[in-house]
Design goal:
The chain is an all-alpha fold. The protein is about 70% helix and about 0% strand. Helix 1 packs antiparallel against helix 2, helix 9 crosses helix 17 and helix 9 packs across helix 18.
């Protein structure tokens, strides 16, 4: 484990501070589990401590979100009891959604839109400077808002009943997913609070593999690539050769996968050790043969949230082809904006939305001509995977860049930096890029066999494997752990 680094006061997964924090929580978790109400109060307190470690004011945000959405949920449920799926239910759901999005907008988007409106008015000769709030962005606020929206909306749909205030507070403040997901829906998590967890059913072997794998991906791959090629490329693209630019773009594709999937894996593993199941968030996304398949594998809890709570309510594919393509593009434009208040994220979302629409249009055209989907030979499948990976990697440039100009400066070096190979593409960099893609082709059956083998050696053997793994990661990894990329979203 690493000494603490990054933001002051932060509790990062790959640090000594978090190891000690989790050890204390783990012991309290199983000691208090038989006293279930006391256990729930402890989990809420731990979540507030964990979140407040970044900034104590964030605890106030948790409290406001918890109380407000529990009140909304009770109102929505009462309206359903009185009149079924009537206008009062829809009104309260709309009010709840609007209030949550307004809160998100104040923290995350107000300054962005105010600055852009100010620029527009100034260019027209109409503007005086608009006030900016310049308030700190609470870490993980987008994940928080999307989680609580599933609670209120599902109650409005009649798919969920309101939980007790204490249970909902546990759901809001459960610390493993608090900062960067996965986006566990209320309908998945709350039923696990109906009875105490059984320590005999804990999947310790899977948890240890997820935690070790996450730490390895974060410290040995993601952080190394960031500090040895990616950061330099985007900081000064004019200094990069074409060769360095190509490998830098590929390195960022691997970095963001290894970084974000590492957080998800560790969060899932930590939750398993506490007796709770969180949904999988990644499934070898760079093996996808289509963009649609990529989004079934990448950030699964977000893409399924967008499908169920945005794309389908917009009409999905039920209102004709043209409307379907528009709905896809709108969904991904908003997905881009969800990631950050910047035109780079909007353009990234637009690229994926247009790409998915074109892909869908080709499928629709084939169906209209009565052409059945033919089986794909191995060579064609390889080309399809390479094409999807190339598209996704180029789109990541806009996601990573500080500005649109910075993104195009990076892309320009693909053709403007011909000549020297440069010095940034070292054997370790190239090897880790290849490894980061190759690990996604490891069969699930192989991972299942590793998990089964680890389960057979018992707690002593599992502890030994964990200790050896942590020692190797600590010895081979860079000094200090960087923040996870998705903390700012």
């Amino acid at each position: 484990m690493r000494a603490d680094s990054g933001k002051a006061g932060a509790v990062l997964f790959p640090t000594i501070t978090f190891a000690l924090f989790f050890l204390a929580v783990y012991l309290a978790n199983w000691l208090l589990m038989p006293r279930f109400r006391a256990w729930k109060a402890m989990i809420v307190a731990v979540g507030c401590l964990f979140y407040g470690w970044w900034d104590w004011r964030f605890v106030l945000l948790l409290a406001v979100v918890t109380v407000a959405n529990q009140l909304f949920a009770v109102r929505v449920a009462a309206a359903r009891t009185r009149q079924g799926d009537g206008p009062a239910v829809r009104l309260w759901v709309v009010v709840a959604v609007a209030a949550n999005l307004a809160l998100l907008g104040v923290f995350k988007y107000f300054d962005f839109f105010a600055a852009n409106l100010d620029g527009l008015l100034t260019s027209l000769g109409l503007g005086a400077p608009l006030p900016l709030l310049q308030i700190a962005l609470p870490v993980g606020i987008s994940f928080l808002i999307f989680r609580v929206l599933t609670y209120v909306i599902d109650i409005g749909r009649g798919e969920l009943a309101p939980a007790s205030a204490l249970d909902f507070a546990v759901y809001v403040s459960f610390f493993p997913y608090l900062l960067a997901g996965p986006i566990s829906r209320a309908s998945d998590f709350l039923p696990q609070l109906r009875s105490p967890r059984d320590p005999r059913s804990v999947q310790a072997s899977r948890a240890f593999l997820l935690i070790l794998g996450g730490l390895a991906k974060k410290l040995l791959i993601a952080d190394y690539l960031a500090s040895n090629i990616v950061n330099d490329l985007f900081a000064s693209p004019q200094s990069a050769t074409s060769w360095e630019t190509i490998w830098g773009i590929l390195a960022y594709s691997v970095q963001i996968y290894c970084d974000f999937s590492a957080y998800s894996d560790i969060a899932i593993g930590v939750s398993l050790l506490l007796g709770f199941r969180l949904p999988d968030n990644f499934n070898a996304p760079y093996t996808a043969r289509t963009l649609q398949d990529f989004w079934r594998r990448w950030h699964i809890t977000l893409s399924s949230w967008l499908r169920d709570y945005l794309y389908i309510p917009l009409g999905g594919n039920r209102k004709g082809r043209g409307r379907t393509y528009v709905n896809i593009i709108i969904t991904f434009l908003l997905a881009g904006l969800w990631h950050g208040a910047g035109w780079t994220f909007v353009l990234w979302g637009l690229l994926h939305g247009v790409g998915l629409s074109v892909e869908r249009a080709r499928i629709d055209a084939r169906r209209s001509r009565g052409v059945a989907s033919a089986s794909v030979k191995r060579g064609a499948a390889v080309l399809q995977r390479a094409s999807v990976f190339a598209f996704v990697s180029l789109a990541w440039v806009f996601f990573r860049a500080e500005s649109i100009e910075n993104a195009f400066a990076v892309l320009w070096r693909l053709v403007a930096g011909l000549g020297s190979l440069g010095t940034a593409v070292t054997w370790p960099v190239a090897g880790l890029v290849i490894l980061g893609v190759a690990i996604q082709y490891v069969p699930r059956s192989a991972l299942d066999r590793c998990e089964a083998g680890l389960a057979r050696v018992g707690w002593v053997g599992q502890a030994a494997v964990l200790a050896v793994g942590l020692f190797l990661i600590d010895a081979l990894g860079p000094q200090g752990a960087a923040e996870f990329l998705y903390f700012k979203f």
